[in-house]
Amino acid sequence: MTAPTPPVPHGPAADLAGVWRLVSFETLAPDGGPRPGPxxxxxxxxxxxxxxxxxxxHMMPAAGPPEYLSYAGTWHREGDRVVHTLTVAARxxxxxxxxxxxxxLDGNRLTLTGGALSTAEKRVLVWERVGRDAP
Length: 135
What we know:
Layout: E1 18-28, E2 34-36, E3 44-49, E4 54-60, E5 69-78, E6 81-89, E7 98-106, E8 109-115, E9 122-130
Antiparallel strand pairs: 1-2, 1-3, 1-9, 3-4, 4-5, 5-6, 6-7, 7-8, 8-9
């Protein structure tokens, strides 16, 4: 099976292209208060958005038992949302799913908010641009 050809990001979508380092990963409690996400207090991770519409995410705890969350596929931007279509995933139940995240881009800081992949919880991930894409 051939993966679908992603739309090429342009305009505001091109602002996301590059490499991002995970700054924080929190779960929002029912009262709206933040608590550590599934990877603990200080997870590490990288998010890659290509300018050709591909995405890859890799995250794991900084310490403690090894657990690895990852997926890849295609992405495109719809206003204040980014849409990930998963074609490769660490878990079979994530394959071919569409993940929609609200996004807030403030310079080199990207905040993505949306539902968890496996539960009904809401997650907030903060990323910081790294590499040659950072000013």
